[in-house]
Amino acid sequence: MKKTQIKLLGISLLLLGMLFPSCTNDLDQAPESTNAIPGEQFFSTPESYKQNLAKLYAGFATSGQSGPSGTPDISGIDEGESQYIRGFWLMQELTTDEAVIAWNDGTIKDLHAQKWTSLDRFITATFARFSFQIVNCNEFLRQTTDDKLAARGVDAALKAEIATYRAEARFLRAMTYWHLIDTFGGGSKVEEDSPTTFFYPDYATRAELYKFVDEELTAITPLLKDPKTNVAYRVDRAAAWMLQAKLYMNSQVYVNTNKYAAASDLLTKVINESGRTLHTNYNQLFFADNDRNGAQNEFIFTIAFDGLHTQTYGGTTFLTHAPVGGSMPAAEFGINGGWAGIRTTSAFVDKFDANTTDTRGQFYTDGQSKEITNIGTFTDGYAVQKFRNVTVDGVQGSDKAGNFSDSDFPIFRLADAYLMYAECAVRGEGGNLGTATTYVNDLRTRANAATVPTLTADATGLDFILDERARELHWEGHRRTDLIRFGKFTGGIYLWPWKGGVSGGAPTQSFRDLFPIPANALSSNSKLQQNPGY
């Protein structure tokens, strides 16, 4: 049962909420609060180390200290909107051809139109969430040094286990910094040896943060547990291989250095040594029981969501409720009602062959028009039926009120590694085209899509890979990064409905490949540097 696995993780949010400050705004602040109880008091038992590690994992799922709302981690925005996965998803998906939203919440429509500013509340909240996660990881590392453990009389066996916890905390921090690098470029680099009182950290460029993350991953990989030997929901060595491969796949964008071949080598390890296997059913990857229906064997790292124990209006609760509206039967999604928000564009729909039954094209079309005349009308645009709060047997998730979802959110899964390997091969930068074709066809066969004869190392092959990534990985937080890597996010090479705020799509400025550093962060720390164009 999922609740048992979460308990094994050691989540105790009520206790942990007192250790870490409840609100933060940017990367300029160390964890300091007049109401915070000194961290020493929360590392007094052997179990407390695992409990505090669990807070770091929970930081990707929860939005506050007492459930879905009431005591938020991030101030100045609706608590659900400040949740890590929801904020990151908006920036990665709503800005692309894969998603539009009907709501008029503040500046939310500026995301798809690519007209955001440094005052955007959703961008500001996500920047703050990254900060909060990094600060918490730093505090854990600060409290688990050799000197601290010796002073507390920690025995050798527990000390060895804590060494693994520290490697995991460094991984989680590195992943958050990777998200920062990808979305904002540069920022403040704060580590465990940074001052614990208020200070203004220096600005770190994108290249400097890239170097830090790369070196961290190289250092911690041998310290993490072997693939498939860690507790459910905790990272192992395969997750580090995957994260470093992600860094290298986008190295040309981040630091103008081609590292596809290095990425390919890591992906070969993920594919051959991670112990992961493709699940037989694509749709079940996003069901309420995806922690136990076989999907978990494909996942390399997931964020745990539980309708009773990690209640939030972000995460997969958002991704299950927000796409349901119109004539869609909410009960079939295991929820008590839809939020009539998210749909997709015809540009994404057209990536699926209308003459095949590719099971990845989970469109709801009854009462929905394919074309979007008015973004504010939910029935304009096909709905996407990807995340469901029901099991493979059609049983509703654990929250029988239908408010909160049990479906876990995959950060990394094996199918992504297959497609990344294939991309490297098509680019002529490592790997084997024949092997890559096999991997792609494994995914297409699972989805009941026609196989391809062979991949080609040319522009046609690259276009196919980009589209195949959309078909396989849509709504999983990859699309913006992929489009930028292929040179199609901004500008006029690739237009989709309502890009640039125009129904047929319009070119946008290239500086929008990066988001702006939020205005309030700049006003808090004059050492930060705004990205060009803002």
Keywords:
single chain; 534 residues; mainly alpha; two-stranded antiparallel ribbon; two-stranded antiparallel sheet; 8 strands; 40% helix
Report what the structure shows:
The protein is mainly α and 534 residues long. The protein is 40% helix and 4% strand. It is built from 19 helices and 8 strands. Residues 1-38 have low confidence and may be disordered. It is globular.
Tally of helical segments: 19
Q: What's the number of extended β-strand segments?
A: 8
Strand content: under 5%
Portion of residues in helices? Answer: 25-40%
Q: Which regions have little confidence, pLDDT < 50, spanning 5+ residues?
A: 1-38
Major sheet: size, sense and barrel closure? 2 strands, antiparallel
Radius of gyration: 22 Å
Spatial order of the strands in the main sheet?
1-5
- Average pLDDT figure: 91
- What is the succession of H and E elements? HHHHEHHHHEEHHHHEHEHEEEHHHHH
Q: Based on CA inertia axes, which overall geometry fits?
A: globular
Which structural class do you get from the secondary structure elements? mainly alpha
Distance between the termini: 48 Å
